Amino acid sequence: MTHVLITAAGSYGDVAPYTGLGFRLRAAGYDVALATHGSFAPLVEAAGLRFRELPAGPAGGKRAGAESAGAPGAGGRKELMRSASAFVRELGSGLVDAAVRGADVLVLSTTTAPLGWQLAEAMGVPAVGAYLQPTHPTRAFPPVVGGTRSLGGFGNRALGAFSLRMVDRVYADAVRDLRARLSLPAATPRSVRARQERAQWPVLHGFSPAVVPRPADWRPGLDVVGNWWPHHDPADRLPPELDDFLRAGPPPVFIGFGSMAGGDGERLSGIAVAALRAAGLRGVLQAGRAGLVASGDDILTVGEVPHALLFPRVAAVVHHAGAGTSAAALRAGVPAVPVPVTADQPFWAARLASLGAATAPVPFKNLTAPGLADALGRAVREAAYTSAAERIARQMATEDGAGHVVKAVERAL
Question: Do residues 40 and 138 share a domain?
Answer without folding.
Answer: yes
